[in-house]
Amino acid sequence: MKTIEYYMNLPYRLEIVPDPDEGGYVACYPDLPGCITVGDSMEKAVSNAEDAKREWFYAAMESGMEIAEPMLQNSYSGQFKLRIPRSLHRRLAERSKAEGVSMNQYCVYLLSRNDALEKVE
Q1: Which helix (H) or strand (E) holds 12?
Q2: How many structural domains does the chain have?
Q3: Which H/E stretch holds residue 36?
Q4: Would you call 16 exposed, middle or buried from its count of C-beta atoms within 10 A (0-12, 13-18, 19+)?
Q5: Gene3D superfamilies attached here (predicted)?
Protein backbone atom coordinates (compact mmCIF):
# COMPACT_ATOMS: atom_id res chain seq x y z
CA MET A 1 0.00 0.00 0.00
CA LYS A 2 1.30 3.45 -0.92
CA THR A 3 1.85 5.89 1.94
CA ILE A 4 1.29 9.60 2.25
CA GLU A 5 5.06 10.07 2.17
CA TYR A 6 5.17 8.18 -1.12
CA TYR A 7 2.68 10.63 -2.65
CA MET A 8 4.32 13.68 -1.00
CA ASN A 9 7.58 12.82 -2.76
CA LEU A 10 6.02 12.62 -6.24
CA PRO A 11 6.54 15.66 -8.51
CA TYR A 12 3.01 17.08 -8.53
CA ARG A 13 2.86 20.35 -10.49
CA LEU A 14 2.13 23.37 -8.31
CA GLU A 15 0.50 26.44 -9.88
CA ILE A 16 0.66 29.78 -8.07
CA VAL A 17 -1.10 32.90 -9.33
CA PRO A 18 -1.62 36.36 -7.82
CA ASP A 19 -5.05 36.97 -6.31
CA PRO A 20 -6.12 40.38 -7.67
CA ASP A 21 -9.26 40.51 -5.53
CA GLU A 22 -7.93 39.58 -2.09
CA GLY A 23 -4.20 40.17 -2.55
CA GLY A 24 -1.57 37.54 -1.96
CA TYR A 25 -1.39 34.35 -3.98
CA VAL A 26 -3.54 31.32 -4.75
CA ALA A 27 -1.78 27.95 -4.99
CA CYS A 28 -3.21 24.71 -6.34
CA TYR A 29 -2.18 21.28 -7.57
CA PRO A 30 -4.03 20.66 -10.87
CA ASP A 31 -3.66 16.86 -10.54
CA LEU A 32 -5.33 16.93 -7.10
CA PRO A 33 -8.92 18.20 -7.52
CA GLY A 34 -9.86 20.74 -4.87
CA CYS A 35 -6.35 20.98 -3.39
CA ILE A 36 -6.10 24.75 -3.20
CA THR A 37 -4.82 27.28 -0.67
CA VAL A 38 -3.66 30.88 -0.38
CA GLY A 39 -0.77 32.84 1.11
CA ASP A 40 0.13 36.48 1.70
CA SER A 41 3.46 35.95 -0.04
CA MET A 42 4.76 33.52 -2.65
CA GLU A 43 6.78 31.73 0.04
CA LYS A 44 3.75 31.40 2.33
CA ALA A 45 1.63 30.11 -0.57
CA VAL A 46 4.25 27.40 -1.25
CA SER A 47 4.39 26.44 2.43
CA ASN A 48 0.60 26.37 2.72
CA ALA A 49 0.40 24.33 -0.49
CA GLU A 50 2.62 21.61 1.00
CA ASP A 51 0.38 21.48 4.08
CA ALA A 52 -2.77 21.41 1.93
CA LYS A 53 -1.32 18.62 -0.23
CA ARG A 54 -0.54 16.50 2.83
CA GLU A 55 -4.06 17.03 4.23
CA TRP A 56 -5.56 16.30 0.82
CA PHE A 57 -3.73 12.96 0.76
CA TYR A 58 -4.90 12.14 4.31
CA ALA A 59 -8.52 12.84 3.38
CA ALA A 60 -8.29 10.95 0.08
CA MET A 61 -6.78 7.88 1.72
CA GLU A 62 -9.25 7.97 4.60
CA SER A 63 -12.19 8.05 2.20
CA GLY A 64 -10.72 5.36 -0.05
CA MET A 65 -10.45 7.72 -2.99
CA GLU A 66 -8.06 6.77 -5.80
CA ILE A 67 -5.08 9.14 -5.93
CA ALA A 68 -3.79 9.91 -9.40
CA GLU A 69 -0.05 10.13 -9.81
CA PRO A 70 1.28 13.25 -11.54
CA MET A 71 1.55 13.45 -15.29
CA LEU A 72 5.24 13.60 -16.17
CA GLN A 73 6.56 15.99 -18.80
CA ASN A 74 8.59 13.28 -20.50
CA SER A 75 5.43 11.28 -21.21
CA TYR A 76 4.59 13.82 -23.93
CA SER A 77 6.47 13.83 -27.23
CA GLY A 78 5.60 17.42 -28.14
CA GLN A 79 4.07 16.25 -31.40
CA PHE A 80 0.57 15.43 -32.56
CA LYS A 81 -1.11 15.05 -35.92
CA LEU A 82 -3.99 17.35 -36.74
CA ARG A 83 -6.34 17.29 -39.72
CA ILE A 84 -7.85 20.66 -40.59
CA PRO A 85 -10.01 21.98 -43.41
CA ARG A 86 -8.10 23.06 -46.53
CA SER A 87 -9.37 26.62 -46.20
CA LEU A 88 -7.94 26.90 -42.67
CA HIS A 89 -4.67 25.35 -43.84
CA ARG A 90 -4.44 27.98 -46.56
CA ARG A 91 -5.16 30.87 -44.14
CA LEU A 92 -2.59 29.61 -41.65
CA ALA A 93 0.01 29.17 -44.38
CA GLU A 94 -0.65 32.70 -45.72
CA ARG A 95 -0.49 34.31 -42.27
CA SER A 96 2.67 32.48 -41.27
CA LYS A 97 4.32 33.54 -44.53
CA ALA A 98 3.28 37.16 -43.92
CA GLU A 99 4.85 36.94 -40.43
CA GLY A 100 8.01 35.41 -41.85
CA VAL A 101 7.82 32.24 -39.73
CA SER A 102 7.07 28.61 -40.42
CA MET A 103 3.49 27.47 -40.21
CA ASN A 104 4.51 25.23 -37.28
CA GLN A 105 5.91 28.23 -35.37
CA TYR A 106 2.82 30.28 -36.16
CA CYS A 107 0.47 27.53 -34.92
CA VAL A 108 2.50 27.14 -31.71
CA TYR A 109 2.19 30.91 -31.21
CA LEU A 110 -1.60 30.80 -31.71
CA LEU A 111 -2.05 27.84 -29.36
CA SER A 112 0.17 29.42 -26.69
CA ARG A 113 -1.62 32.75 -26.93
CA ASN A 114 -5.01 31.10 -26.58
CA ASP A 115 -3.81 29.01 -23.62
CA ALA A 116 -2.44 32.12 -21.87
CA LEU A 117 -5.69 34.04 -22.45
CA GLU A 118 -7.72 31.14 -21.01
CA LYS A 119 -5.64 31.21 -17.80
CA VAL A 120 -6.20 34.96 -17.38
CA GLU A 121 -9.99 34.84 -17.71
Answers
A1: none
A2: 2
A3: strand 36-39
A4: middle
A5: 3.30.160.250, Met repressor-like
Q: Would the pLDDT of 121 be above 90? A: no
Compute the Cα dihedral for 106, 110, 115, 116 and give only its sign: positive
Q: What is the CATH number of the domain that holds 55?
A: 3.30.160.250
Q: Supply the range of the domain harboring residue 27.
A: 4-63
pTM of the entire structure? 0.60
Residues 81 and 54 in one domain: no
Give the count of beta carbons closer than 10 Å to the beta carbon of residue 35: 21
Residues of the chain above pLDDT 90, percent: 58
6-49 residue pLDDT tens: 999 999 999 999 988 888 999 999 999 999 999 999 899 999 99
